[in-house]
Amino acid sequence: MSEEKGDEFLSWENLIYVADFLQASGENRFSLLGGEPTLHPAFTDFVIYLLERNFDIHVFTSGIMAEEKLEEAVFLARDLPIEKLTFICNLNDPQQTNTSLAEVESVKRFLHFLGPRVALGFNIYRKDFELDFLFSYINEFGLQRSLRLGIAHPIPQELNRSVSPEDIKAILKRLFYYTRMFERFRVKPGFDCGFPLCGVTDTQLAWLYRYTGGRSGFACGPVIDIGPDMSVWPCFPLSSFHRKSLFDFNSLQEVLDYYRRIHDVVRCEVGGIFEECDDCLFREDGICQGGCIAHSIAKFQVEAPVRLKEVYL
Question: What is the pTM of this model?
Fold first, then answer.
């Protein structure tokens, strides 16, 4: 974000348009992402404005803030119900990423001052991941008893660090190694898009649904991101896939329907990330979407262009 030009930040005019668009669509949740959204020069003023419009605000952050910005956030949140302003703090394992001591201390300071408002998120990009430090943070700082779990999926035509389909079942096996830790610390796991159901045993599935009340699913569908220039796309891995302008739509439902139709076309070309997805009854019944669609789209870009035009960037 520090290298961004001023005209590449979200403007007040566009923020107000998005707020109008969402409220007209019956949506009262407003998520602020980045980059690092707290680095936006008008971050605090944006939050105040959205609160005045009665949005529930979710800020996705690294937790690394300047002291002045952190003080503003604490002051802003002091009398608000937790559901009105929540921070989703996406963390990396400081041991596996060689995070500097200064960054670790900055994150801990953030968690200390905003603890009950913070839910942790963790993106899995390697098979030997560790979750112990997350449970420790939740317990030490009194964070929300939930953990948002995602898998690093490929971004078509980019060389991002991602997990291959062959590794996902091993990742799920390791994830369920932590079931006792989830129970011990009273933490509920939540799955982002792209987890395939076939990597989970019946016993693990029963535990997951019993422990989370059925809230963790195996979906993959558009969640809609809106850029500072008012472009829209179906999700982070597909940020270059059929990008459109928000001005082309009259409601959030129209945007979702547009990308769901394209997802359906891709699913007709290939059932999922594994060959067995084609004949999977869970996929046919809509219980599982066959993993992240970005894997299929990334594969389409390097093969002969023999498929329906919608599957290409």
Answer: 0.91
